[in-house]
Amino acid sequence: MSTASRIAHGVYGLTTAPRLSILIFHRVRARTDAIFPAEADAAHFERLMRLVARTFSVMTLADAVSRLQRGELPPRALVVTFDDGYADNADVALPILQRCGLPASFFVSTGFLDGGRMWNDSVIEIVRACRHATIDLEEFGLGVCSLAGSAERRVVIEALLPRIKYMTLSARDEAISHLQRLSGVARLPADLMMRSEQVRQLHSAGMEIGGHTVNHPILTTLTPVEVEHEIAAGRNRLQEIIDAPVDVFAYPNGKPARDYDASHVELLRRLGFAAAVSTVPGVARLGDDLCQLPRLAPWGQSLAIWAARLLLHQRNTCHAIAPAASL
Predict the structure, then answer these.
(1) Strands (E), 85-128
(2) In this model, does residue 310 exceed pLDDT 70?
(3) pLDDT at position 8
(4) pLDDT at 303
(5) How far apart, in whole angstroms, are the C-alpha atoms of residue 144 and residue 127?
(6) Which is more confident, 318 or 73?
(7) What is the pTM assigned to this prediction?
């Protein structure tokens, strides 16, 4: 047994009540990205999934929630989730999951399927493709920024994203168009997100498909009518694609109170969703709000350190949620 597996078995064995860990991924690149070298690539993801397969009881979110409600969650219960709907989820992650015998849950924003692109990827790809050594981003509050190398480009991207994230959808589009003009980049990739047939492929392979809105907006920036359309239309499109119910959901960005609130939690319940996940770190226990389940990011390249950190989070059961609406 590996060091990481021994850590997992040993520390998990000390926990008394069943607890559910939910991992969150976005992309799994075929090769290491020079700008984001810490992101999971195929080799690292496969090592991680082999550890997970040896150590944990892995299930889909719907299955885990059902077992949690019945008080039948097995020891070391874990769910692997992916947000957004990247093409590499089907091309790279799926074969690895299949080799390891693992299910996973994929939350897909339908507005970017079949040739679309998420706003944050537009920012990333504009900065990646820009041929200038510097770029004047004074209108974004950043001044003149160096693009001398991959590290400098990552700094620019990480500074731009939070300045655009909380804009309205129309303002986001305007900001991206302006950034593209400043950079001189004429064309951006149209193959980053899944095609509809890849969503069907995941479903046919036994993976769970969940809702993630149409356009990945911050829900708190929308009117109630707009929120319901984003959630319901996204779900309906996915159900058309896979010809099966879609009963789980992931909040875009996922921070309670800031990105979603109690009204959105209640809307999911009214629409009949069985569970929803946030991006608040922690583990879930019996009695937790099933429409505000916490998730954990996979940290670092060392499997032993990752396993130790994951297990330390077994103590993190008092995670933040959106407060109940006042009467």
Answers:
(1) 105-108
(2) yes
(3) 53
(4) 81
(5) 13
(6) 73
(7) 0.92
Q: Is 228 helix (H, G, I), strand (E, B) or coil?
A: helix
Structure tokens at 153: 């480009």
pLDDT in tens, 104-130: 999 999 999 999 999 999 999 999 999
Alpha-carbon distance 320 to 318, whole Å? 7
Give the helix/strand (H/E) hosting 204: helix 196-204
Helix (H) or strand (E) holding 57: strand 57-58
Distance in angstroms (rounded) separating the CA atoms of residues 118 and 107:
14
Rounded distance, CA 86 to CA 30, Å?
12
CA max distance for the chain: 59
How is 78-143 classified by DSSP, letter by letter?
A: EEEEEEE-BHHIIIIIHHHHHHHT---EEEE-GGGTTT---HHHHHHHHHHH---SEEEEGGGT-E
Alpha-carbon gap, residue 192 to 120, rounded angstroms: 12
Instruction: Say how far residue 145 (Cα) sits from the centre of its chain.
Output: 29
